[in-house]
Amino acid sequence: MSSQVSVEREPAPGEIPPWRDPARSCVERAEALIALMALEEKIAQLVGVWVGADATGVAVAPHQADMGGGVHWPEVIRHGLGQLTRPFGTAPVEPATGAKALAAAQAEIAANNRFGIPAQVHEECLTGFAAWGATVYPTPLSWGAAFDPELVEQMAGRIGAGMRAAGGIPSTYLAPPLGRRSEVSAVDPTAAYPFGHGLGYTEFDWTDATVPGPDGQPAASDGPVDWPVDAEVSVAVQVRNLGTRAGTEVVQLYLHDPVAQTTRPVVRLVGYARVPLAAGEQARVTFAVPADVTSFTGVHGRRIVEPGAVELRFGRSSARFEATVPLRLVGDVREVGHQRRLVSLAAVEPTSPPAPLEAHR
Question: For residue 329, which phi and psi values (nearest 5 degrees)?
């Protein structure tokens, strides 16, 4: 019996619509959606409307009428909308107010079409984010005249930061390599702060990342440690409060799967632990990681654990890693079912500091 959902019928109550199913390819999802869309709904996705944010932050207001002909907003979004043009740069509205108005408009657009599709948002940024109060930078002709690539890169970085501060490009830390900033795309979806980012009032030192053996001592290995595809592995790290006041560190554990039969995120959070420490104290943080956490939907549509090299990375965020433990999943490809274990249990064991700390400078 096929598990495929027909693309020519509406999904049943409780059924994931095929166009929202992340296990399907982009082509399958698009085909499933297009098959159900009426002609008016398809045409609506080709339409862009010039808008400006409402100064109250309640919604966006169409400015198409400024070029002749009236525009009735409810009628415009009745079947959906393909693009919102210049929501920030059309009228002098504070960026925070503009972001609030844009979010309200997107919710209204999604609610007014059968498939909950928001609009793409277009904004000018060639000489900086075209919003009230934003910095205006030189034009591209001036970039070339500067003969200073490093200066141009610094300026472009500031433009991107300004765009991200107002909402930026939708992104996720779970993106694969081509979903990140790279030299093959002009799009930079880098978040202002990475997933897991946080600040405190003290500093912590992370050391001695290991794979403990049965006796609690580091496993002897000159390379990646073997990890059976149907077993659990333990990894540990020592965390010490270097400061003069108490604080809490959040130890995050990320999985990196460099080679798989389908595209995988660069890193994915698989465990974390809050570690409260007084000044000078230290603790050993150990994660018990079942191999099931490495599972993913393979090319045949089944969730599997695949043998091969992986890494478990200890990080302060998804972009800042303090230690990496190389591992090698060994055995045959294993299919996992509904009983799969996807939680890495963490244990925090206080240990004695080696010596009293001096005031941290």
Answer: -70, 125
CB 192 within 8 A of CB 164: yes
pLDDT one digit per residue (tens) for the chain, 361 residues: 333 334 455 666 667 888 888 788 888 888 888 999 999 999 999 988 887 655 555 555 555 444 445 567 888 888 999 888 878 766 677 777 778 888 888 888 989 888 888 888 887 777 877 777 778 888 877 777 878 888 888 888 888 777 766 665 656 778 888 777 777 665 677 777 889 999 889 999 999 999 987 666 676 667 899 999 999 999 999 999 999 999 999 999 999 999 999 989 999 999 999 999 999 999 999 999 999 999 999 999 999 999 999 999 999 999 999 999 999 999 999 999 989 999 999 999 999 654 455 544 4
DSSP annotation of 225 reads E
Q: What is the token pair recorded at 323? A: 């230690």
H or E element, residue 310: strand 308-317
**290 is in which domain, residue-wise?**
204-351
Cβ atoms within 10 Å, residue 115: 13
User: Last residue of some domain: 122, 155, 182?
Assistant: 122
How far, in Å, CA of 99 to CA of 94, rounded?
9
| Residue 350, beta-bridge partner list | 283
Report the C-alpha gap between 93 and 102 in whole angstroms: 12
- Number of domains observed in the structure of the chain: 2
Q: What is the Cα–Cα distance from 133 to 142, expressed in whole angstroms?
A: 22
Distance of CA 43 to the CA centre of its chain: 31
Last residue of a domain, one of 91, 107, 122: 122
Can you give the pTM of this predicted structure? 0.59
Q: Which residues lie closer than 8 Å to 235 by C-beta, 6 or more apart?
A: 209, 210, 211, 212, 253, 286, 287, 289, 312, 314, 325
β-bridge pairing 303-305 and 296-297: antiparallel
| Dist. CA 239–CA 212, nearest whole Å | 16
